[in-house]
Amino acid sequence: MQLRKLGFLILFLSTSIFAADPPGIPDGWSDGYVYANGIRIHYYHAVPAPGKPVIVMIHGVTDIGLSWTTLTWKLQDFYDIYMLDTRGHGLSDPFTSADDSSTLVKDVVEFVNAMHFQKPILMGHSMGAATVMRLGAEYPGLAKAIIMLDPFLGRRGPNRQDTGERREGERKVDSEAPPGAGQQEKAPDRLSVSMHGTPETLVAQNNYNFDDLVATCRRQTPKWDIVDCQYWALSKKQYHGAYTNEAWQVMSGVMRTGDALAKITVPALILKADAPPEVRKANEVAASVMQKGKLVHIDEAGHNLHHDELERTVEVLTEFLSAL
Question: Which listed CATH number (2.40.160.20, 1.10.3720.10, 3.40.50.720, 3.40.50.1820) goes with 27-158+257-322?
Fold first, then answer.
């Protein structure tokens, strides 16, 4: 009986620890705004590391700058790290009617210029990986190196959506779900999150209970650190992205990278999720056009490989960065 009571107490305490208001900025970090490319871009700055190489991190669809937290903790002693909230995400300004498929690339370029960074290292995940890939090709003198976490590799037609892009929202309900699925999705740990939908749908996501979002993340991604799930939950409450098809085209358009990989002249690294042999081979062929590039598949990792396999991701990044 005593053991049973102890078990209930441990369970209660563990859930109480996780049940909380949305987290703030990590200790020693700061945040700010810069006016760039016609909007205010919000960013987070890790523990300052003056004199160290600057890394600028660009997240994927529906995420925020703080989605990089656990990875940044591993790197911040050696690099001066800035994490952007992409336009339409987090605390940055929304999309405008003038935006196009190059807007997100120009946002990063103008952020770097406004901050007076000299050849920073650019790192992006998914949509952010496509953004820095294109930036490396279109602005060859801007960055010291380009790091891409699970970008789509290959050519995309005007309506094609790769698996990484589809998974970016991660918790989207199939529109052809069987009867009763909608009720199941209302369970506290089974919330649905979409990248793109009606304003009513996206605002409803902003109003989800924070603890329920964390529970959804922990159920669906048990390998993630609790901090990853907390900032994942916060990012969904802050997402104000694709209310219109035009805004969605800005995001999907930046992911049409064409032959950008072949045009990157600085050292480049691609980390890809685990995949069967035939997919790995296709990725290797696609990456072979890089002039100074390297491709590494992260075993047992999915699209969010820096959350799924953090230590291995850090190991590969450290090896690449130390050689710059």
Answer: 3.40.50.1820
What's the rounded Cα separation, in Å, for the pair 269 and 62?
A: 24
Q: What is the pTM of this model?
A: 0.87
Q: Residue 36's Cα: distance from chain center in Å?
A: 20
For the stretch 244-273, pLDDT in tens is: 999 999 999 999 999 999 999 999 999 999
User: What does the mean pLDDT of the chain come to?
Assistant: 88
DSSP conformation letters of 137-206 = HH-TTT-SEEEEES---S---TT---HHHHHHT--PPPTTPPTTHHHHHTSTT-----SB--HHHHHHHH
